[in-house]
Design goal:
Elements lengths: L1 H5 L3 E2 L3 E6 L2 E11 L2 E5 L9 E7 L5 E12 L10 E11 L1 H16 L18 E2 L3 E4 L2 E8 L3 E5 L9 E7 L5 E14 L2 E9 L3 H14 L17
Antiparallel strand pairs: 1-3, 2-3, 2-5, 3-4, 4-7, 5-6, 6-7, 8-10, 9-10, 9-12, 10-11, 11-14, 12-13, 13-14
Length: 236
């Protein structure tokens, strides 16, 4: 019975960073449990593949572990399923107490009837990162985008900015017209081969959104473009 309790999954939306060789991809969780998590993605990895994953908890803590892919769901709009992959932790978890506390809190809120994420919540696939290498200006300093989502970007830069600071980001939009948006620094990135900032776009107008979408369509790999089509009825 104790093992069954540990396998109970709870709906949760937190950022998971999956490390594959030297590449890091940001995904959203769909469900979490004491022993793993299900991550939303249109391109799940193969079964039994080992990888490293880290989670950003609402408390601000970071939990990381090696994990194995034990379940994969391919995109199938006809079935209305959520595509992704189920991970089971493999070996010790760095930050195990924080993770267990997070799961206990989700369970407590569920038992108390308090609002949590729901399995039916709509989450844009555009939240997945799309590789996009373009020059930008961050507070007037030249920088380079590594990837972009509907809400934010990872920017290669040596600028030292504290988390929470507001900055101005300028992109070259369709036809070369500049698109300037305000961003908030959400994290400092210091990974092998990449140093920069993760920023979230804020107070973006509909015109700016349209220009950024066109920019992504013009420069991103063709197979990624469906993730930015915010009016697609198949989006989860």
């Amino acid at each position: 019975m104790s093992e069954k309790r540990r396998d109970i999954r709870y709906a949760a939306r937190i950022v998971a960073r999956v490390v594959k060789k030297t590449e890091t991809e940001e995904l959203l969780t769909h469900e979490v449990s004491f022993r793993g998590a299900f991550l939303r993605t249109d391109a799940p990895l193969g079964l039994r593949q080992l990888l490293k994953v880290s989670f950003s908890l609402p408390s601000g803590a970071t939990v990381s572990a090696h994990a194995m892919v034990v379940h994969a769901v391919a995109p199938d709009p006809s079935k209305g399923v959520v595509p992704g992959m189920g991970l089971q932790f493999w070996g010790p978890v760095d930050g195990a107490r924080a993770w267990e506390g997070f799961i206990h809190e989700l369970r407590r809120r569920e038992h108390a009837g308090m609002p949590n994420a729901k399995l039916t919540d709509k989450v844009r696939r555009a939240s997945e990162r799309i590789k996009l290498s373009i020059d930008v200006a961050l507070d007037g300093a030249r920088a380079m985008v590594r990837d972009i989502s509907f809400n934010g970007l990872a920017v290669r830069t040596d600028l030292a900015m504290p988390i929470g600071v507001r900055a101005r980001l300028e992109l070259s939009g369709p036809g070369g017209e500049p698109v300037a948006v305000d961003v908030l620094v959400r994290r400092v990135i210091d990974e092998p081969g990449f140093r920069g900032l993760g920023v979230e776009m804020v107070d973006v107008t509909e015109e700016q959104k349209a220009a950024i979408i066109e920019l992504v369509r013009a420069h991103a790999p063709p197979e990624s473009l469906t993730r930015i089509a915010v009016d697609d009825p198949r989006l989860h």
